UniProtKB/TrEMBL annotation:
Quaternary data: Component of the Smc5-Smc6 complex.
Listed EC numbers: 2.3.2.27
Protein name: Non-structural maintenance of chromosomes element 1 homolog
Chief place of localization: nucleus
CDD domains assigned: RING-CH-C4HC3_NSE1
Domain of life: Eukaryota
Key word Zinc-finger present: yes
GO molecular function ontology, one term from the record: ubiquitin protein ligase activity
The keyword Cell membrane belongs to this UniProt entry's keyword annotation: no
Domain RING-type: 188-229
Function text: RING-type zinc finger-containing E3 ubiquitin ligase that assembles with melanoma antigen protein (MAGE) to catalyze the direct transfer of ubiquitin from E2 ubiquitin-conjugating enzyme to a specific substrate. Involved in maintenance of genome integrity, DNA damage response and DNA repair.
Length: 237
């Protein structure tokens, strides 16, 4: 190779350590962290160079099959960064933290969420699965506790008894979901990343994230599908 990778500095190492301890960080936190790490270690800082800074870390993480990836929160459209393990499928990585029946409950919850109309699964539906697990049945109380842990560990997020995939989970599992649910998992027509909470065009079937829908139609007097130009019949969030 003729191109020398920019060296990792203590600023890069500190940045990586903090991101690892959080698992996922919001874009504005990442930009603040970038500045702080550069200031502490007296490394050249430019506010618009955070992507270059991260790319340097990613080049050094390559042999370890790790990568810092950027994704979007489906609820508010904000960017997030997470450290992703590329060597193992994420489900196997989860296997070191959870028991077999907990993992089965997670998989079944994921099925419900991905196969749903709106990207959510109700706690009632999830808890009904608990006593149908093949590995080992789970009592409702137990299942409620496990769901709590999935939320704390940022695999799921919960709103008023409805569960969806956490932003971290989507960033980490995008490839897994696209290959394992290839007939139903879709990419957003606007930002081209995996869309779980989304709206679907009733005419041509393209999908759009809610934040992307909001942004895309903001400037339009009459909402029309970006693909087939038919009237967009959903409420714009």
């Amino acid at each position: 190779k003729t191109v020398m990778a920019a060296p990792m500095t203590d600023a890069h190492r500190r940045f990586l350590q903090v991101l690892m301890s959080h698992g996922i960080m919001e874009g504005s936190e990442v930009r603040t962290l970038h500045r702080r790490c550069c200031e502490i270690h007296k490394v050249y800082y430019a506010h618009d160079k955070v992507e270059d800074f991260i790319n340097t870390i990613n080049r050094h993480l390559q042999p370890l099959f790790m990568q810092i990836r950027k994704g979007m929160s489906e609820s508010d459209g904000r960017s997030h960064y997470a450290l992703v393990n590329l060597a193992e499928t994420e489900i196997t990585k989860m296997a070191s933290d959870y028991t077999e029946n907990e993992l089965e409950l997670f998989r079944k919850t994921m099925d419900l969420i991905i196969l749903s109309e709106n990207g959510f699964a109700s706690s009632t539906d999830i808890l009904n699965l608990a006593d149908q697990l093949k590995t080992k049945k789970m009592k409702k109380k137990e299942a409620e506790q496990v769901l709590k842990v999935f939320v704390e560990d940022k695999w799921l997020s919960e709103r008023n008894g409805e569960y969806t995939l956490h932003t971290r989970c989507i960033i980490e599992m995008e490839q897994y979901i696209l290959s394992n649910y290839h007939d139903v998992a879709r990419k957003c027509n606007i930002c081209h990343s995996l869309a779980i909470q989304s709206q679907v065009c009733e005419s041509c079937g393209i999908v759009m994230h809610l934040p992307c829908v909001r942004k895309y139609f903001r400037a339009q007097t009459e909402p029309r599908c970006p693909q087939c130009n038919d009237f967009w019949s959903w409420d714009i969030p």
